[in-house]
Specification:
79 residues; alpha+beta; three-stranded antiparallel beta sheet
Length: 79
């Protein structure tokens, strides 16, 4: 829920960004909350970053596989 974040921004007067929160549907998003000067309100900006989060996970998986392959190769070539 975004409500605790809104409350924190209202009380502190400091903008906050929460990155890559997961939804129950499996999507990811980044939320930025900024207090509105002179008002008792918060501007909320949410961006869908699902594609970026999925690409980052695929990259981490690929890098892990390549590291494991390199270690296996190194062990098989050493006496």
């Amino acid at each position: 829920s975004v409500l605790p974040l809104l409350d924190q921004v209202l009380r502190s007067g400091t903008p906050r960004t929460v990155k890559s929160r997961r939804t129950s549907e499996g999507g990811s998003y980044t939320v930025t909350c900024t207090p509105i000067a002179g008002e008792d309100g918060v501007l909320v900006y949410a961006a869908d970053v699902t594609d970026h989060a999925e690409a980052a996970e695929r990259l981490r998986t690929s890098e892990r596989r390549h590291r494991e392959t390199a270690v296996t190769l190194q062990r098989s070539l050493l006496p």
